[in-house]
Write a structure and sequence with these properties.
disordered N terminus; Gamma-B Crystallin, domain 1; alpha+beta; four-stranded antiparallel β-sheet
Length: 176
């Protein structure tokens, strides 16, 4: 009888451990995150990401607390006098026709693409992903197949709904 009781307790303990292990494994499995688009403040190096279903301009404005001038909308570019604003340089997309996940670059420098140019010698996690892009505020972009502005160049262009044979090729970009 004692043996049966001991076996019963051992079986119950094993079942408890198995159930706890199974529960903790399912608890540690994270739920599927929404697809993320990202942004980079080229002045500070600060980056952020947001749900790709959101409008990039609105998401960046919400994250930074500052208006983002796109140069395409009078209402957005009409910032109150003396207000701190940011200026969109470029938004690249991993899909054609400005679709899919996006990565946007912006600056607080009002002279963007006039007296100031920006270079990203390594696109990092965005290397080999861009398929379309839109420059803003008078900027244009030249993409390079390799980091450090090396390899085949594509551009300069203001906008492309498809980068054609350069889809998923760019590893660095120069914006001026």
């Amino acid at each position: 009888m004692r043996r049966l009781a001991a076996l019963g307790l051992a079986a119950a303990a094993a079942l408890t451990i198995l159930t706890a292990t199974s529960a903790s494994a399912s608890a540690s499995a994270s739920p599927t995150e929404p697809a993320q688009s990202c942004w980079t403040n080229v002045d500070t190096g600060q980056t952020g990401c947001f749900d790709a279903a959101l409008d990039p301009v609105e998401a960046i404005e919400l994250a930074t607390g500052r208006p983002l001038v796109t140069g395409e909308s009078a209402s957005r570019s009409a910032a109150p006098t003396g207000a701190l604003v940011d200026y969109l340089l470029l938004t690249g997309y991993d899909g054609q026709n400005m679709t899919g996940l996006s990565n946007s670059y912006f600056s607080s420098n009002a002279n963007i693409c006039n007296a100031v140019a920006y270079g990203f010698q390594n696109l990092g996690t965005w290397s080999d992903r861009f398929e379309s892009f839109q420059s803003s505020n008078g900027c244009q972009a030249t993409f390079y197949a390799d980091t450090l502005y090396d390899g085949t160049a594509y551009g300069p262009f203001v906008s492309k709904t498809t980068m054609g044979s350069f889809n998923n090729v760019a590893s660095s970009v120069y914006i001026d």
